[in-house]
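Data card: per-record layout.
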Amino acid sequence: MGILTEEMKRVVAQQQLCYAASVTPDSKPNLSPKGSITFLSDDELGFADLASPGTIENLRHNPAIELNVVDRLPVGVFDLRKGRAEIVKNDPEAHRRIEQILGPEYPFEQVVKIRVETAAEVFSPVYTLTRSSEASAQP
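The structure for this 139-residue chain is written out next.
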């Protein structure tokens, strides 16, 4: 079994938006939204390089990346962290899966593939309180 659970893959497929954190060459944080996130396997994600020169440059210097995929209440946030990114041009399956999300109006040449090393569901107190309230309301 891979790192990504079926619930995590469902949220990624449904949301198609993540926030990708990378590190600049001078060690500053960089956060960028990516609207083409998809799961490629049980432990691999990918997104298209669409106007992402800063993120691509950062990943060329340091392939460490952290992604957050946010699902609204009651699920929460999936923190797909400690991933290693690779920028690829020739991966027909990754291109096909991302093209299904974007459609033909967004041509792209590169895909950022992320090998997910750890993933966790993150709950804020609001999510926890909502779940507790729902559980206590049931007979």
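Known properties of this structure: The helical segments are 6-15, 53-61, 92-102, 125-137. Residues 21 and 67 are 6 Å apart (CA to CA).

See the next section for split statistics.
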